[in-house]
Design brief:
By secondary structure, the chain is mostly helical. It has a single domain, classed as Up-down Bundle (Hypothetical Protein Ta1238, Chain: A), CATH 1.20.1200.10.
Length: about 180
């Protein structure tokens, strides 16, 4: 594509993967739009100085990038005319990787005794925002029904929100900030 604008969406429609047209107000477009928003938030998080190569959280940066790649594939699946035919990527191994990383981070945290209020440091609050976007994304995907939202996608997106919650807590504790509990 030589230009970013094509004019084909000027009537309120957009293309699916196969070139067929769909309304931009369609729930499927809303679902993969939320995935796109989540990808962007993860990019913002990755750009934080705490994730740079000389900082203690740098190893998480590459894992977050792999999550962005998974989400690009997930969006592609949602944008397929028949997602059941798009089986090029199984999200279950990626969900297992999320579980493993979640457990690893969780094992380094104090026992959670109350709800956590997002607060300090700012990057932790940004991860909490990504988590809430992930939950909203999940609701959009679930609303599409099982003919579009396959089990592996639902498992993956649910594990991702768990990972983001634990990551936000891990960042707070690792940076020496106190968790702010709702009593």
């Amino acid at each position: 594509m030589s230009k970013i604008y094509t004019g084909t969406g000027d009537n309120g429609s957009t293309s699916l993967q196969d070139g067929s047209r769909i309304s931009k107000a369609h729930p499927r477009v809303a679902a993969y739009g939320k995935v796109d928003e989540l990808i962007s938030w993860l990019g913002l998080i990755r750009s934080h100085p705490l994730f740079s190569p000389d900082q203690r959280l740098h190893e998480i940066n590459s894992f977050l990038r792999s999550i962005q790649e998974d989400l690009m594939l997930l969006a592609r699946r949602l944008a397929s005319k028949d997602p059941s035919l798009d089986t090029r990527y199984d999200f279950l191994p990626a969900a297992a990787a999320l579980e493993k990383s979640t457990d690893n981070l969780h094992d380094q945290l104090p026992v959670l005794k109350s709800f956590v209020l997002p607060y300090n440091p700012d990057i932790s609050s940004q991860v909490h925002i990504a988590r809430t976007i992930c939950r909203e994304t999940e609701r959009h995907i679930v609303a599409l029904g099982t003919d579009i939202a396959s089990a592996d996608i639902l498992i993956y997106i649910n594990r991702l929100s768990d990972y983001l919650f634990v990551l936000a807590r891990f960042i707070t504790v690792t940076t020496g900030c106190a968790e702010d509990y709702f009593v």
